[in-house]
Amino acid sequence: MSTSRQTVKASSDTPKTRINKYICESGICSRKAADKFILSGAVAINGKQANLGEKVSADDNVTLHGVVIKPLAASQLIFIALNKPVGVVCTAASSDKRNIIDFVDHPFRIFPIGRLDKDSQGLIFLTNRCDLVDKIMHAGNQHEKQYIVTVNKPITDEFVNGLVNGVPMLGVVTKPCKVEQLSELTFSITLDQGLNRQIRRMCKHFHYSVTKLERVRIMHVQLAELPVGSWRNLSSDESAKILLELDGSTPTV
């Protein structure tokens, strides 16, 4: 009798995860896409059709279109840094001949984390963990990104101060940011915001045009000496720091 009670207690203590997060952590798709699969009836839990918001544990049998899925183990994590060239588009759509997935040509399915404009270059992450994509992309998590920007005319103190203090665009005012002038035409800017073409729009507000834009850092990961067009696996320390920083972050809904 005591053995039975212990078994029930152990089962009740098994951690449970929302079904869309469970699917996302398998590397198959985002949470949003997982919700669509659930609504379409393609997901089952222990042989029964899953419902939105339902929770599962590691002991449950979860299937998508009849195929059993499991969250990726830590050893299966793919996390790479690419120095994206100008002209490569941050999309997985095969209809675009210069899409980032075909450009990297990784042997396993991966997803880009965020975007860099087609006419911009520099550091971008790709991973097979959709939940990491969601967490890093969430604007409220304030993950820093640093860029080196070259403009078409001499930089003034007024221009620098204007960038630092916020610029009206897309119906909002950009958050205060860090700006350092590096040369007559070049400056470094660090943002924890990701509005569409934000830096180019900020410069345009002050009648400057961007002639070169390169992202050189995301969080604590530096572009460093990675050649344009090349990619590398993040080190175990780099990945561990990102996972630690993301622990408890709110994913995109």
Fold and architecture overview:
By secondary structure, the chain is an alpha+beta fold. It folds into three domains: 2-68, Structural Genomics Hypothetical 15.5 Kd Protein In mrcA-pckA Intergenic Region, Chain A; 74-139 and 221-246, Pseudouridine synthase I, catalytic domain, N-terminal subdomain (Alpha-Beta Plaits), CATH 3.30.70; 144-218, Alpha-L RNA-binding motif (Alpha-Beta Plaits, 2-Layer Sandwich). Helix content is 27%, strand content 26%. The chain has eight helices and 17 strands. Strands 7, 8, 9, 10, 13, 14, 15, 16 and 17 form a nine-stranded mixed beta sheet that branches. It has a four-stranded antiparallel beta sheet with strand order 3-2-5-6. A hairpin with a 2-residue loop joins strand 2 (43-45) and strand 3. The termini are far apart.
Shape, per Cα inertia axes: elongated
Architecture (CATH level 2) name of the largest domain: 2-Layer Sandwich
Largest sheet: 9 strands, mixed
Distance between the termini: 45 Å
Cα gyration radius (Å) = 22 Å
In percent terms, what proportion of residues is strand? 25-35%
- Counting H and I runs of at least 4 residues, what is the number of helices? 8
Please trace the helix and strand order, writing H or E for each element.
Answer: HEHHEEEEEEHEEHEHEEEEHEEEH
* Poorly predicted runs: 1-11
